[in-house]
Write a structure and sequence with these properties.
The structure holds 2 protein chains of 2 kinds. Chain A is α/β, with parallel strands linked by helices. Chain A is about 35% helix and about 20% strand. Chain B contains 11 helices and 12 strands. An 8-stranded mixed sheet of chain B has the order 6-7-8-3-9-10-12-11, sandwiched between helices. Classes of the chains: A alpha/beta, B alpha/beta.
Chain lengths: ~350, ~325
């Protein structure tokens, strides 16, 4: 049953159903649990931002959705539903068709993923012929169209990667990711290695393309201010868990989780008075032995022994992700008590 | 204004490229002048390849300049090879690098990293451990006795960068050149390092050159700002003033490109293709002209000088900061 459904996952796109749904996803690297019980959904055509610091598990989530985890990483529990089909149970051939056709991915260093001794156009041809019955000529023509789509001169299909700037190479990768019209494009820090002006150009282009072609995006970055601009909804990860999730504007205007508040406090503003900011004291925990209770409690400004009852919960009981207002949830004992 | 600690005059660095027949030169740094004053942080901002790190390396004497002067304590040290003078200069001008993982020796303890500069420069040899603990305390690594015995791998990125800062402070410098000191650190701990720089500037009257591509952090810590484009300083002035009302179209473009959650709506900016990187044998004229939305004919012919168009704020732009001669021509 699963096999028949997964053969045609694209047809089951019902607009009211989420495109991707993670249920209690857990991923382990040996004894270390890098992703621990993540629930997340992405609607068709939505840009979902996933933010957090290095080591919080955000890239592991991306790799799990794309089904490209490699040992020692393994999915230790939960489900990854794509149009209702659990991709964890797909076999090799199903996965081969699923990747790139249904979900594609742009990495941070993707611009270095191009083969240096192959012309850009030939790399398009290779990729397309691996997934479709298409003549070399047609594939090359499509490659040219796709380059045009991301603002690169069509004639550049004849260029070698070293003849292109970093920003152009990253756009080539984005064009490749869009080649088979996937329903979801995962972008893992796609602009982190680029200068701000180039970053701005690429983000504008992604947004325009996304409006035209209607694909959904899972956008992963540590740069919360960038996400607030580009994403529809934002989920914040800390130490392998989602700690807050809300529409992008609301994360910016009214963050509830102390970690999100701290993150927002870590980006100095470009306007207004310059006030001394605090950031977040301490450092993210070692996931081999995460703190008991709320994983953020050792760094949390609201975790004080004076408030004995709250302190007891914070240090022993894991908070659950609860809705604090429509479409806005947070996993925090303090927020739970207040609401 | 207080006195100047370090003065850079018309600093220029060209790198030769090409073959024996076709000799070209990359103008990595061209005619750069600025002064660092005690108790101030000067931000040097620009994109990759703009020459900002080359300026930092020239100040640290990791490169020899093609021409220009680096004046410290009344002496030009840009090209001196005298060991004693260099040692004294290096004790006074210390450097902090981007990568806190690569700049510490993994086989040595924190204490070793702080003792070495003290020994090399012959300081505090009698009460060396007191000094080590004092330094760790200054950069917020407590308890110092325990931190001193740790190895780099036992520390987080932020703590390692604090060790690097403590090491720079060990020789009691007057100037610290910090080259992208926070860009490899986790977001939540970056502010801590910036706050430490602010604290050191206030308490120890240090002069900082903060090299960065991050305008928001430059605005947060810096008193003055220098904006580099293709090897030249295209705008300079008080940081808050320059970032509130930039004169140069490149500064305006940079500012409009920075992600800014408080911006209303998502107005698109028009970006013209081009690179901020250093040019090979650049012709006369403004180096930004190909991307400039407001350029006029003269911009292609004459290299604009830095002109103080507003009090303390200067820019290399014939349109927004014209020199008297150009104003006449226009």
């Amino acid at each position: 049953m699963i096999a028949t459904a997964s053969a045609e996952p694209r047809t089951s796109a019902d607009r009211t159903e989420p495109l991707v749904e993670l249920r209690r996803l857990a991923v382990e690297y040996g004894p270390v649990r890098a992703v621990d019980g993540v629930d997340l959904s992405i609607a068709p055509g939505e840009i979902l931002g996933l933010a957090g610091e290095s080591g919080c598990g955000k890239s592991t989530v991306a790799n799990a959705v794309m089904q490209i985890l490699r040992p020692p990483a393994r999915i230790a529990g939960g489900q990854i539903l794509f149009n209702g089909v659990d991709t964890i149970r797909m076999n090799r051939e199903e996965l081969r068709r699923f990747r790139w056709r249904n979900v594609s991915m742009v990495f941070q260093s993707a611009m270095n993923a191009l083969n240096p001794v192959m012309r850009v156009g030939d790399q398009f041809v290779d990729m397309m012929r691996a997934h479709e019955r298409i003549s070399k000529r047609d594939a090359l023509a499509r490659g040219g169209e796709l380059l045009d789509l991301v603002g690169i001169d069509t004639r550049r299909v004849r260029a070698y990667p070293h003849e292109l700037s970093g920003g152009m190479r990253q756009r080539v990768i984005i064009a490749m990711a869009l080649a088979l019209r996937p329903e979801l494009v995962i972008m893992d820090e796609p602009t982190t290695a680029l200068d701000v002006v180039v970053q701005r150009e690429i983000l504008q282009q992604v947004k325009t393309l996304q409006r035209e072609l209607g694909f959904a995006v899972l956008f992963i970055t540590h740069d919360l201010s960038l996400l607030v601009e580009i994403a529809d909804r934002i989920a914040i990860m800390y130490a392998g868990e989602i700690v807050e999730e809300a529409p992008a504007g609301e994360i910016h205007r009214a963050p509830r989780h102390p970690y999100t508040v701290g993150l927002m406090q870590s980006f100095p503003p470009l306007h207004g008075p310059i006030v001394r900011m605090t950031g977040i004291p301490g450092a993210p925990p070692d996931l081999a032995s995460p703190p008991a209770g709320c994983r953020f409690h050792p760094r949390c400004p609201h975790c004080r022994p004076e408030d004995a009852e709250l302190y007891a919960r914070q240090t022993t009981e894991r908070p659950r992700l609860l809705e604090v207002s429509p479409a806005h949830s947070a996993a925090c004992h303090l927020v739970e008590r207040e609401s | 204004m207080s006195t100047t600690t370090l003065e850079v005059e018309a600093l220029t660095k060209h790198f030769p490229v090409g073959t024996a027949l076709i000799r070209s030169r990359v103008h990595a740094v061209d005619d750069v002048s600025f002064a660092l004053r005690p108790g101030t942080i000067t931000a040097l901002v620009g994109e990759s390849g703009s020459g900002k790190s080359t300026v930092a390396r020239l100040l640290a004497r990791l490169y020899q300049p093609t021409s220009g002067r680096v004046v410290f304590d009344g002496k030009d040290l840009a090209r001196t090879r005298r060991r004693r003078e260099l040692l004294r200069y290096r004790a006074n001008v210390q450097m902090i690098f981007q990568d806190p993982f690569g700049s510490l020796n993994p086989a040595k303890t924190v204490r070793h990293h702080l003792v070495r500069p003290l020994r090399i420069h012959g300081l505090h040899t009698d009460r060396i451990d007191d000094r080590v603990h004092e330094l760790l305390d200054t950069v917020g690594l407590v308890p110092p006795e325990r931190v001193a015995a740790k190895y780099p791998h036992e520390l987080s990125g932020g703590q390692r960068q604090r060790v690097a800062i403590a090491r720079a402070l060990a020789v009691e410098p007057q100037v610290i050149v910090a080259d992208e000191p926070i860009s490899m650190l986790d977001v939540s701990i970056r502010i801590g390092i910036l706050n430490l720089m602010l604290e050191l500037k206030e308490k120890q009257d240090l002069a900082f050159l903060y090299v960065t591509h991050d305008l928001a952090s430059a605005r947060y810590v810096a008193d003055d700002i220098l904006v580099m484009y293709a090897g030249q300083i295209v705008e300079q002035g008080p940081a808050d003033q320059v970032l509130a009302e930039p004169l140069h179209p490149y500064t305006q473009l940079l500012l409009a490109s920075v992600p800014d959650p408080s911006r209303d709506g998502h107005e698109e900016i028009e970006v013209r293709k081009g690179l901020a990187a250093a040019a090979v044998d650049p012709p006369d004229g403004c180096r930004f002209v190909g991307r400039c939305p407001i350029s006029v004919e003269v911009c292609r012919r004459v290299t604009p000088p830095l002109v103080e168009a507003r009090p303390q704020q200067s820019a290399r732009c014939h349109v927004n900061a014209p020199s008297p001669a150009i104003r006449e021509e226009l």
